[in-house]
Design a protein that fits this description.
This protein is mainly alpha-helical and about 220 residues long. It has a single domain, classed as Urease accessory protein UreF. It has ten helices and no strands. The longest helix is centred in the N-terminal third of the chain and has 29 residues.
Length: about 220
């Protein structure tokens, strides 16, 4: 029971992790004229879950969680995330989200958080979100299943929240989309993670890169 509550606590939008500043390419997609009715939005998010979160974010998180007591090993995972994240807006967004999450856990005294923050501040680590989640969630007491579900829910709900703020979808309709995606998150979280960290979301990558050049933006990516 406590493990489930810990996962809910970390996935709660009220936890100060800084993710509200990022649309994960959705703003660029909308600005490019993509038709994003609820069905299309659901397909975009599901594609990101299947081809980015489940193949890159989740395996990196699980590896960092398992090796959280060996910061040198987590640094290598963190560097692999940097090398395999092709779109610069996603690299910088992951680092900023990681910094926000890490700062919150340092302030509440989560075991391992301060030591990882020292590595990031020294330049020895980039501090990507998935690597940081692995360390602080291990310190907070989450197991692999809870961490996977929290991370997947945060990924899906982050897209939906951005869509609401962009006016793509209403708040009630957005909950229908999110409900439909819960089964996708559960399915992917139950599957064995891939051995390598890799992603393939060219449509969102291109949208995020184009968005970074825009003069008027609501989100950082």
């Amino acid at each position: 029971m406590i493990g489930q509550l810990l996962a809910i606590w970390q996935a709660d939008a009220a936890f100060p992790s800084g993710g509200f500043a990022f649309s994960n390419g959705l703003e660029g997609l909308a600005a490019g004229g993509a038709a994003l009715d609820p069905d299309a939005l659901r397909r975009v998010i599901e594609g990101a879950l299947r081809r980015r979160w489940s193949t890159a974010d989740r395996p990196a998180l699980l590896r960092a969680l398992a090796r959280a007591d060996d910061l040198d090993a987590v640094v290598e995972i963190d560097r692999e995330i940097e090398a395999t994240t092709l779109a610069e807006p996603f690299r910088s967004g992951s680092r900023k989200n990681g910094a926000g999450l890490l700062a919150a856990h340092v302030r509440i005294g989560t075991p391992g958080a301060r030591e990882w923050q020292a590595r990031v501040r020294s330049g020895a680590a980039h501090g990507h979100l998935a690597a940081t989640q692995g360390i602080v969630w291990r310190g907070a007491g989450l197991d692999a299943q809870g961490a996977s579900l929290a991370s997947g829910y945060m990924a899906a709900s982050g897209f939906v929240t951005a869509a609401i703020r962009l006016g793509i979808i209403g708040a009630v309709a957005a909950q229908s989309v999110l409900r439909d995606l819960l089964g996708v998150v559960a399915e992917l979280a139950a599957a064995p993670p891939p051995a390598r960290i890799e992603s393939f979301s060219p449509r969102l990558d291109v949208a995020a890169i184009r968005h970074a050049r825009g003069e008027l933006r609501l989100f950082a990516n």
